[in-house]
Amino acid sequence: MIGHTLKHYRIDAPLGKGGMGEVFRAHDTKLNRSVALKVLSPELTRDVGRRQRFLREAQAAARVNHPAIGQVYDVDEEGEVTFIAMELIEGRTVRQLILERDLDCLAAVDIAIQVAEGLAKAHAAGIIHRDIKPSNIVRSNDGHVKILDFGVVKLLQPAVCADSATPEMPAIDTGCTTEPGLALGTVSHMSPEQSKGESLDFRSDLFSLGVVIYEMITWKLPFQGGNPMSIMHAILFDQPVPMRSIRPNVPPELERIVDRCLEKRADDRYPSAHSLATELRVLRRNLESGKVEHVPLVQQVRVALREIRDVPPSRMAWYSISLASLVAAIVFMVRSAQPGSLLAAGVVGLFVYRYVRNRPLQMLRLFVRRIGRIPEVRMITCKDDQLTVYVDRAGAGLYSRINETLTACNRRLFFGNAMTVAIRTDSPKDELDRALNDTGVHYVRPDVIEKS
């Protein structure tokens, strides 16, 4: 279809294919703008149900106006071809970001917040997306997130959702129905009730968003299987592998939020997308400010045991031999009870004590060494376990890297208070001068000294 024209839309290039049709880059000759044109092939238009769902996609999306939802410009037909003209978004899908490993924790949280806010707007209009997945979420080049493809959207009827309607999730009379027992959507991101073909409410989208967040953080799906039936079985009966067992630096609060989204019973999930977005915003604020949450000792032990299990066998053999040799040497020296052996044991004990005692300083130096390599970092100061990092500009990746480095250093402390960090941007010159003249300066970029 490249080069052809549908009404006043000239098709320029293919963009991709989906379950409901093919998407092209096109040019609106009337308004002189680029658009995304989603076309249902003539073969599929003969299926009345599929064609109606395709048209319902445009009607549903057109009802909602929100920055996080792709805008629908037009829906029309020419001959046997039905098409939708939509906003063209220059950027990458979350699926591409996951495959390219181009998402850190803070960036994933930011995407989740924008998706939750967009879903809250759609849910308020009585619309369930039913197919929230990474390929239906696009992050534009300027960082804005858009939800695409309402192709399997379900507009609730009062008879369908009378039992589950709440003040936050009202039942909407739309006149549109979905066949009973028909499971629409992508298997790996379906909610349990969606997998069983049951009637849905808005909390089904929250389960799917929980799957997306889990995948953005761990690069793995929480429910896996060799075929669609085994994946559905996992969704219905299995518990996902804890996120922190895959990536130990995941904030405990983020794991709690995702676990609640992935509850099997809809009543155990968040009551609305708005409440989910609220908790995610609090989490983002804590991550940006460098707030370190207390991790229970039991959880720290579990993480340590998981790390031990992940040590390669060859390295574990060396660790075991070294530990056995140390124990044997200590036992031998104690049994010998010779002054020389006791003196040697005392020297070894002194070195061990100094190593443990100086651990906080070692972790501070490690943090400074790693963060000081970042080009945007201007200066690092520390006073009473409070680190301050002065940067040229703040970005999601920079915030995440600083906080993840801090978390890694704090986890390696043997005792004492955990370090905290504050990230400062656009600091005035007099503030930088005061910091330079104060005690506790651990790193200064050369050009900062030249300008002071």
Any overview of this molecule?
The structure is a single chain. This protein is of the alpha+beta class and 452 residues long. The chain has four domains: 5-87, Phosphorylase Kinase, domain 1; 91-289, Orthogonal Bundle (Transferase(Phosphotransferase), domain 1), CATH 1.10.510; 297-354; 359-451, Alpha-Beta Plaits (2-Layer Sandwich), CATH 3.30.70.1770. 46% of the residues lie in helices and 17% in strands. The protein is built from 18 helices and 15 strands. The chain has a six-stranded antiparallel beta sheet. The chain has a four-stranded mixed beta sheet with strand order 14-13-12-15, sandwiched between helices. The protein has a three-stranded antiparallel beta sheet with strand order 7-9-10. Helix 4 (105-124) runs antiparallel to helix 11, helix 4 packs across helix 16 and helix 13 crosses helix 14. The N and C termini lie far apart (62 Å).
Secondary structure tally, helices = 18
| Strand coverage percent | 15-25%
- Please bin the fraction of helical residues: 40-55%
How many distinct folded domains?
Answer: 4
Biggest sheet, spatial arrangement of strands: 1-2-3-4-6-5
Radius of gyration: 28 Å
Q: Shape from CA axes? A: elongated
- Gap between N and C termini, in Å? 62 Å
Largest sheet: 6 strands, antiparallel
CATH H-level name of the largest domain... which superfamily? Transferase(Phosphotransferase) domain 1
Based on DSSP secondary structure assignment, what is the total number of beta strands? 15
Reading off the top of the CATH hierarchy, the class of the largest domain is best stated as: Mainly Alpha
**CATH architecture assignment name of the largest domain:** Orthogonal Bundle
Per the CATH scheme, the topology name of the largest domain is Transferase(Phosphotransferase), domain 1
What does the average pLDDT come to? 79
Structural class: alpha+beta
